[in-house]
What does this fold into?
Amino acid sequence: MPDAITLSQTPTITIRPWIDPVVDEHGYDPRSRYVETFWLGVLGPTATWMVRRLAAGLDQHPQGYEADLVVLAKEMGLGFETGRITPFTRGLHRCVMFGLAHAIPGGLAVRRRVPAVAHRHLKRMPESVRAAHEEWQTRSVTLDELTRAHQLAMAMLDVGDAADTVEHQLLALGVTEVTASEVADNVARLQPRDKIR
It folds into this structure.
């Protein structure tokens, strides 16, 4: 079975969805505030952006697609050369190393949903981030909060906003992070895959 570094020997790889019923049900969208806040420090910026880009590709092509690594690297402001270890290939490797992708023949299976950050990673984070994660995990959300945020989200979609922008817009309107994340996640699950931009 090839690993992510071996895949860097070719400029084009196949991207397929990684089907994991537990994480698919309870995980977080790779473009979510949760990932920005808690996974970024674990993965690093290149791998975080990479998993976001790869998952966005799966939104457009749910069964999988061919990814041109040269183009993807350029879109991320990086370079790619076959057979060389670059920041881009290290990002690919980190996605695999931290369980957000795994090698398949000719490519990668990529998670469309990201699991909660493992305790071993949280232990290495600053106290403020650990405290924010604890609050995120234990904060209760009222039905009124959810209803209001859901109504706002549906209004955003009705006027043509993209489903993947809803969470950030809700935050800008003063909705709490946990509520915005949950509502945006629910809205994204309701949208047909070809409507998510």
About this structure: The CA atoms of residues 91 and 136 lie 27 Å apart. Residues 193-197 have pLDDT under 50 and may be disordered. The first strand starts at residue 12 and ends at 18.
